[in-house]
Amino acid sequence: MSGPGAERESGPLRVAVGSDHGGFRLKAAIVTRLRQQGYEVEDMGTDSGASVDYPEFARAVCRAVAAGACDRGILVCGTGIGMSMVANREPAIRAALCHDAYTARMSREHNDANVLCLGERVLGEGVALDLVEIWLATPFAGGRHLRRIQMF
Ligand code: RB5
User: How confident is the model at residue 107, as a pLDDT?
Assistant: First the structure.
């Protein structure tokens, strides 16, 4: 099965991760944690505080997900807002900007979000890493929610 509601049937989830300069520290922590946990991680930059443009990194991650090269994407900028705006203009992407465990879980259960957006300047690292863990582990509930995500 491909498209909304699809999940990888075997092997570790492949996760594309990207940030701008406002999110590169949290992005590095996420990459380290996910590799320790056995995920296959594609780190798409940026890797320093030098000013860059978040749309480029958002598009690179979203296109890897849309093409099927990666199963999920995680984007970090200062607030997560710019990343989520760009990501949701990309075909086949359902990006969720999450600040708490409930929205992280529900973005998977009800919306089958395939991209998670986080704000490094909004969240502490411990909270952010918990959100990532919840978001990656939560399955899509399907049923009426599948019909709804197929409507957009
Ligand atoms: C960069 O200063 C900041 O604008 C960016 O990281 C992000 O928060 C945009 O939405």
Answer: 98
Instruction: Give me the residues paired with residue 77 across strands.
Output: 119
Write the CB contacts of 10 (distance below 8 Å, at least 6 apart in sequence): none
Distance 119 CA to ligand 1 centre (A): 9
Residue tagged active-site, from 21, 62, 70, 77: 77
Ligand 1 pocket (Cβ < 6 Å) reads 20, 22, 54, 77-79, 81-82
Predicted local confidence at residue 1, as pLDDT = 37
Q: How far apart are the first and last CA of the chain?
A: 18
Measured at the CA of 15, the angle between CA 105 and CA 9, to 5 degrees, comes to 80
Q: 11-149 in CATH: which number?
A: 3.40.1400.10
Judge whether 110 counts as a catalytic residue: yes
User: What is the domain partition of the chain in residue ranges?
Assistant: 11-149
**Predicted confidence (pLDDT) at residue 65 exceeds the cutoff of 50:** yes
Tell which one of 54, 57, 123 to mutate to probe ligand 1, the residue whose CB is within 8 A of the most ligand atoms: 54
pTM: 0.95
Using alpha carbons, list the distances in angstroms from residue 120 to 61, 117, 138: 17, 10, 22
